[in-house]
Amino acid sequence: MYVIVVYDAAPKRGVKLMKFLRQHLNWVQNSVFEGELTESGFENLKHGIKDIINDKKDSVIYYRFDSQNYHDRGIIGVEKNEIDSFI
Amino acid sequence: MYVIVVYDAAPKRGVKLMKFLRQHLNWVQNSVFEGELTESGFENLKHGIKDIINDKKDSVIYYRFDSQNYHDRGIIGVEKNEIDSFI
Fold first, then answer.
1. What's the pLDDT tens digit per position in A30-48?
2. At residue A60, what are phi and psi to the nearest 5 degrees?
3. What sections of B1-87 are H helices per DSSP?
4. pLDDT of B82 strictly over 80
5. Contact A59 B79 (CB under 8 A)
6. Which fold has domain B2-69?
């Protein structure tokens, strides 16, 4: 499955979240990660996110697709991190 | 079509971008918008974004789907803005 994660968290937890998400997904923009995950990988991701955030204050949204062939993905302006540069 | 837009822009342009995007899509989180658009609506959106950002410094990523029935969308923590509260 293909997953997009966006988050809005307090600075300290935001840094922890970024470090955690970077181990599992590709950083593509400030507070935005994308990548392929297995079902179990996705479950681990959710548990890890829950361990880090304050669920009364921080907000994480995930979008999950069967595969990357959602319709289209485009960039306007700077591409902060080219995804296909990842093996 | 269903569109998700995430952006990373300098503060002044970020505010302008937010005000513009709010006229066309639902604000769901800091720098994240979602919503249904027609083909022409999407083209207008892109033109409007290009008019606002500095394409050498700012970054806007859009994800476009034929419809909202991509696999799944979930929230962990606070839902900053419930989408279905929109008519």
1. 999 999 999 999 999 999 9
2. -125, 125
3. 11-22, 39-52
4. no
5. yes
6. Alpha-Beta Plaits (3.30.70)
